[in-house]
Description:
The complex is a heterodimer of chains A (about 290) and B (about 325).
Chain A: H1 4-8, H2 12-16, H3 21-46, H4 51-67, E1 83-86, H5 92-102, H6 142-155, E2 162-167, H7 175-185, E3 191-197, H8 206-209, H9 215-221, E4 225-230, H10 234-242, E5 250-255, H11 278-288
Parallel strand pairs in A: 1-2, 2-3, 3-5, 4-5
Chain B: E1 9-10, H1 12-26, E2 30-34, H2 44-49, E3 54-56, H3 61-73, E4 77-83, H4 84-90, H5 92-101, E5 107-111, H6 129-134, E6 140-142, H7 147-158, E7 164-168, E8 173-174, E9 189-192, E10 197-201, H8 205-218, E11 223-227, E12 230-232, H9 236-246, E13 249-256, H10 261-272, E14 277-282, H11 292-298, H12 303-314
Helix pairs in contact in B: 1-7, 3-5, 8-12, 9-10
Protein name (chain A): Transketolase
Cofactor (chain A): thiamine diphosphate
Pfam family, one (chain A): Transketolase_N
Amino acid sequence: MLAPDLEQAARWRHVTAISDPQVLTESLRRAANASRATTLQMVSAARLGHLGGDMSVLDVLTTLYGSVLRVDPENPEWPERDRLIMSKGHCSEALYATLAWAGFFSPDELRTFDRPGSALNGHPNRTYVPGVETNTGALGHGLPVGVGVAVGAKLQQLPSRVFVVLGDGELQEGSNWEAAMTAAHRGLDNLTAIVDRNRLQQGARTEDTASLDPLAEKWRAFGWNVVEVDGHDHLGLRDALIAVAAGRPTCLIAETVKGKGISFMEDRVEWHHKVPTADQLATALEELSR
Amino acid sequence: MTTTLEPQTFDCRQAFAETLIDLARADDRIVAVCNDSVGSSNLVAFREEFPDRLVNVGIAEQNMVGVGAGLANAGLVPFVCAAGPFLTGRATEQIKTDVAYSDRAVVLCAMSPGMAYGELGPTHHSIEDLAWMRAVANLDILVPADPAQTRAAVRWAAGSKRPVFMRVGRHKVPGVSDPADPFVFGRADVLSDGSDVTIFATGTPVSRALGAAGLLARQGVGARVVNVSTISPLDEATVLAAARETGFVLTVEEATTTGGLGAAIGEIVLRHHPVPLRMLGVPRVFAPTGDNDYLLETFGLTAEGIAAAVLDLRN
């Protein structure tokens, strides 16, 4: 049922070892598309999930786990690890596929997604799933927790960096801006927020709901270093994720396409949490295999 | 000329602050988080000694609780301090999701609970907190009744490795606990024995319940007074023994009777040994303007009011 690509995909250690940019790009592209295919199958089997946002964020997640994060799948609670906090927890299936690819648990586990009693809930739970740092699902929670981890790492002089993946619609929750103030005030240069800027939320376009633009200026005004990147360009993402601005937290605004990689899903609001038909699934898997 | 001796009273917030500093001296993982409440949480001395280990996020309670959870993720032992109404009311979802559901060992310290800020009105009264926090799974709830219990509860919470919610009273109270054994997690303490009725009290009303027991004794009514300093998990054995042995139960709390201590005890009694039960606290109303003493009197939370409620219950 799972995409064979994922089962055979290079694990985290192998990908990070790649130095040739072209080979790295192609490896990450294949891995992200394998995770897309897996995610599609998980959602199709469970009959629920959030495919649009999964597709938009998977290049970010794959780049993080494939070439940036210092984590040890054999020791998920390693104190000096980097943290990835998936604040947009509704895209749990994308996170699970990525964690399985990175080696935190067997890809076989993914078959249980959303089944009764499964560890793989529709929103991530850290006590059940290795590699999950904090329970999310309700929006606006990840950045404050990320600020706390970043402060804790500084206090203990740990090298850990903290990455928080935010949905753009999620930024309508005020708690993000409370955390943004604290992060800048405390000069948390070990904290990077990544906004999955796909411009769609559950019911409509973000700019037609409660507009976020000018988004970069908002973060800058809050005292953050802001970098706008193509959220589907693995090398560009990797370079931006590795970079640090001394004395300031960084916000990457990753310009993405909701439903990325699947022609009939791209930039379509109804694919926020729609489930594909058997024909649509076949078409999508075929497109992703290219 | 006669002299009236007032009972000696003690400051729980002071006990809290001193204990936190003692702990912080011995363990550099102890950190405090607050919301512009350095003064009202008695953290001035902590800040002077450990400036880096006080994280003041400003007036931002949702962020404050999330930051606490993140500090715990990073291996620290955070005490998150804020006025009770705002800690619980503004950040209930963060307490649920970031702390309790995520199973992070954060100690949530609700300062000045109940109607400690009486004159400031119902926005500043923390009477719903016990009901709200009781409804959250995986959260231990402590309400120390005096400074000795506060010291011991803070020490216990620092080592518990579990999510904890704790009330820290603002107004001075008499000592009521046994100095040799001031706080045992999960145990309700029988402070005075009696076989005619049991008064379960938590926090500031405990000393008043003892006063009521004295008044009742003069009328030949033997009241058992139980200090419930752990609300969750509740000491079911002590509750049921009291219900069986005394036949009448009165609960007393500086909180709403909808969902607080009274409801917690009522749930156990009703399930296992139904007896006549009455809950004393704030009924489902917003309190009028007045200081803490006035409001406690208004809602019958004085020794006289508690004694009267007992007599009414037994008639």
